[in-house]
Every structure is written in C-alpha cells, then in structure tokens.
Specification:
Elements lengths: L1 H19 L4 H35 L15 H19 L9 H7 L1
Helix pairs in contact: 1-2, 1-3, 2-3
C-alpha cells in the first residue's frame, strides 16, 4: 500500500535529519512532529480516497469518474520531504569547518 511505503521512506529521511542535528531538541521535535503529522495525514487521505482507489484498480480506465483527487495522497510526503530537505540544507550551511568541496558534491554525499 502506498501509505506504508511513503511513511517508511519518510522515517529513513527523518532519521538522517536526526543524525545531522544530534543535540538540537527543537529540530528533533520538529522532525518528529513533521513525520507523525505526515503519517496521520497520509492515513486519513488514503482512508478518504480508498473507494476511488478500489474503483480505479478494478475497472482501470473504463471508469466514467476520473480519480482527480488521488494525487492528494502524496501531498503529506511532499511536505515532509521538503521540510527534511530544508533541514539538511541548513545543516550544510551551518558547517563549522571550511568547506573544501563544492556544494553539489556535499549535497550528493548527504
């Protein structure tokens, strides 16, 4: 189910953010709140869209009703990944040692 897979990926990214800010309790609270908010919102949205998902899976493109709102399921994950990406960029900007590598090489290393 997409809900479980999206939340697993978000958890891994959240653990990475947690590792990047080991002593910052505010960032820990923000990352936990963002992750659990994403998980709850995804579950609620999948629950609301479940009849349309079943209809689309059973009838495919033969349905007369277009599943216009199915993309909404992915919005919480987009939000959580955007927040975690921003936190990774903040951590990169806060690096205390001089950065000898280019920004892109450090970004791809993360």
């Amino acid at each position: 189910m997409p809900c479980t897979n999206l939340n697993n990926v978000s958890a891994v990214v959240g653990l990475r953010v947690w590792y990047l800010f080991p002593k910052n309790k505010t960032i820990h609270a923000l990352s936990l709140g963002t992750y659990f908010g994403c998980a709850i919102a995804t579950i609620v949205l999948v629950k609301e869209q479940y009849p349309f998902i079943l209809l689309e899976m059973s009838q495919g493109s033969q349905t007369s009703q277009s599943p216009v709102l199915l993309w909404v399921i992915y919005m919480p994950s987009l939000v959580v990944h955007t927040v975690f990406f921003f936190l990774k960029i903040v951590r990169l900007a806060m690096a205390s040692e001089p950065v000898s590598e280019t920004f892109l090489s450090l970004f791809f290393k993360e």
